[in-house]
Specification:
Rossmann fold, Beta-Lactamase, 46% helix, alpha/beta, Heat Shock Protein 90, 13 helices, five-stranded antiparallel β-sheet, five-stranded mixed β-sheet, 20% strand
Length: 504
């Protein structure tokens, strides 16, 4: 490190890039100490205590009494230098030797900086003028972006409906077949496999919608009654085949003492587990992937462990950031959004997530989510009730037939309409006990039909039926006068429970 006198001198010159060779001399030019590389100047370092003038004749005649700077000194060895005399005391001073080329480059650089400052001022003035001129253009672009966002939301809602409507038929009829072939265990297992596959497809659609919600809207947490045993079985049914394809062992465990349903946002909890389990299977080349669910103190504890490559400590804080991907031969291509969305979902549900991992020793993700016990109403969709007259407006014949199978068996008499306009006419003629309106119908949609019914004085309960699950859709339905909201694919026990609640 250079002496303070020397470093302060070059700081004042703003010459931090200059590399001086510095000598500390006494009044007799005897060397006391030196810093830097003399050979870079073509000089041989003098011995400590020697008179440097004997080795370097260009110093003969140099006066040491006052600070001085002598430029363009030719050393006779092809180097031209500048001498900087820096007295410290009457008996000690510093002599700094720098290449003249470095000094020249320094002055050129400072001149360049001055020129750039003038140009910068001119550019800033132009930029201010341009900024004023483009403000209106930016406002136009903002409106266009907002319009594009609305279009995107409408597109997502439409695609959700297009997927969910046929999935209602797939899942609903598979559930019906499962009950119908209860005595045939292999057939029942196959029917339940169809149900699980359909529900997984619903989960994939929900993932797309969830990303849109998290990016652009205020997401709303939904309270579902979740059977943890069924949740563990479903995760195993989805992930075990993927693990088996890679020769991995997969296991799902549940605390055997917890059999009562708990209150959770089931779709989002499933998405969290699928994201983490999918990553574990993807990155683990041999060994195992394991899911453990336990419940205590009204909290659900989820642990996902694997024997994969592990994650270095310096990478743990950034794996949850959007578009972050870890480098290395064991990593896979991807957008880097999965863990980012997982973290957002955990926070949305009021929980926490942690990670224990070391390179080469696998990883363990720990998730804790609030999960109070659910107060379950014992509802049997096959049981009969005192009945009631239902008007159902639905344009999909498969769903009409499916609802007829379940609802008539539950003790209700049904009447159907193909669109909202026909539904309004039938409500006026027959005064049903409850109306179920699909929100997406030809001629007149369900939202418009509900508004007209309420405007005409109809006070009976109305249930919205839709394949769109955006929270904005639910808000629109409530504002239109709906009393209940059932999303496709329709879970018939949920629909029957909603009907019973509203007309009991």
């Amino acid at each position: 490190m250079l002496p303070t006198v020397v470093s302060d001198y070059f700081d004042r010159l703003d010459s931090k890039r200059i590399r001086p060779f510095v000598l500390q001399l006494d009044a007799g030019f005897r060397l006391q100490e030196s810093w830097g590389d003399a050979t870079a100047l073509g000089l041989s370092p003098p011995a400590k205590g020697s008179d440097v003038r004997e080795a370097w004749s260009f110093l003969v005649g140099l006066h040491l009494t006052q600070p001085d700077m002598l430029t363009n000194i030719d050393l006779g060895n092809g180097h031209i230098v500048t001498l900087h005399v820096l007295p410290e005391t009457d008996n000690s001073f510093y002599l700094a030797i720098t290449k003249a080329s470095e000094q020249t480059e320094h002055y050129k650089e400072r001149q360049q900086q001055a020129n750039e400052a003038r140009l910068l001022y001119q550019k800033q003035k132009k930029l201010v003028d341009r900024l004023v001129a483009t403000t209106a253009e930016l406002e136009i672009r903002r409106h266009e972006a907002e319009e594009a966002m609305r279009d995107k939301s409408q597109f997502l809602a439409s695609m959700s409906h297009e997927f969910r409507t046929p999935l209602t038929s797939v899942i609903g009829y598979a559930e019906w077949l499962s009950n119908a072939v209860a005595e045939n265990e292999p057939a029942q297992r196959q029917a339940r496999a169809i149900v699980r596959a359909g529900q997984h497809m619903v989960s994939l659609v929900d993932n797309i919608l969830e990303q849109a919600r998290l990016e652009h809207t205020e997401a709303i947490v939904h309270e579902d009654h979740v059977d943890l045993r069924q949740l563990a079985e479903d995760m195993s049914a989805i992930m075990a085949p993927l693990a088996a394809e890679k020769g991995l062992a997969f296991a799902a465990f549940l605390d055997p003492q917890q059999l009562q349903p708990v209150v959770l946002d089931e779709m989002r909890v499933r998405q969290i587990m699928i994201n983490l389990l999918g990553n574990a299977v993807k990155f683990t080349q041999e060994g195992f992937v394991q899911l453990t669910l336990s419940w205590t103190g009204e909290q659900l504890h989820v642990e996902i462990a694997d024997s994969g490559p592990g994650i270095a400590e310096e990478d743990r804080s950034r794996i949850f950031s959007a578009f972050e991907r870890l480098e290395g031969a064991h990593k896979r291509a991807g957008a880097g959004l999965g863990l980012h969305i997982t973290l957002q979902l955990v926070k949305l549900l009021g929980g926490s997530i942690g990670l224990d991992s070391k390179p080469g020793e696998g990883s363990r993700f720990h998730i804790r989510l609030p999960a109070p016990l659910a107060v379950e109403e014992d509802i049997d969709p096959d049981s009969t009730t005192s009945g009631g007259r239902l008007l159902i407006a639905e344009d999909d014949p498969d769903i009409v037939q499916l609802m007829e199978l379940f609802l008539t068996r539950a003790g209700y008499s049904l009447e159907f309409a193909l669109n909202g306009r026909e539904a309004i006419e039938r409500v006026r003629d027959t005064q049903p006990d409850l109306v179920i309106l699909d929100l997406n119908m030809p001629v007149m949609d369900g939202i418009s039909a509900a508004r007209k019914l309420r405007d005409s004085g109809h006070e009976g309960p109305i249930i919205a039926l839709t394949g769109a699950t955006l929270d904005e859709e639910r808000i629109r339905a409530i504002e239109a006068g709906f009393d209940g909201f059932v999303a496709k694919p329709i879970r018939m026990p949920e629909l029957i429970a909603t009907v019973r609640t509203l007309i009991t």
